[in-house]
Amino acid sequence: MRTRLLDGVVALSAAAGAGLEMILSLAPPNPGGLAGTLVEYFSYFTLDTNVLVALAMGWSALAPESGPGKFFSKPGVRTAITLYILLVALVYHFMLRDIWTPYGWAKVSNFILHYVTPVLMLCNWLLISRKDGLRLLQIPGWMTFPAIYAVLVLLRGQLTGIYPYGFLNVAEIGWGASLMNVAGMILGMGLAGCVMVVAARRLPHGPMGAMPAK
């Protein structure tokens, strides 16, 4: 029960941040309409990842014995999602926070998305999440999500000229710099994954630690 409760806290945090951001995005004036707003909303890795955290942790909290609940509780899956949300926090803190200053409710959603949820997710992983059976060979598979995101964002940018982040803006910094930024972030995430796999051997395996990893 405690595990489900703590998973639920993370899910609620991610849902609150992502939901508030959606409400703000749909508020008038909204020249792009619903379809345009959704495309723009899901072009941000921050929002994609927070939605993923909300779904994964929510399923684990509400229906842990269901197929999705068991899937999102697997050590490899939970660790990968933790990596993604940590990337959100680190990239924002070190690369983006000085170039955008939100106000009002946007400041609230921004703080939840980039700080509260990542910290809660990391604490969840450190203290209660399963970490049995984690292997370094799993890390390339964990990089699939950010790699696919980068490909889709760059493709959309080529078609529309719109890029969600300046460090991916091919029109302004060129293909070389954009691809180097993508490679650097994926490499950094991979190195962080290595640290987590090694650290997992010394950390509690969580209340489900005795169960075999799948």
UniProtKB/TrEMBL annotation:
Domain of life: Bacteria
Keywords: Membrane, Transmembrane, Transmembrane helix
Keyword Oxidoreductase: no
Residues annotated as transmembrane: 41-63, 75-96, 108-127, 139-159, 179-200
Protein name: Integral membrane protein
Organism of origin: Hyphomonas oceanitis SCH89
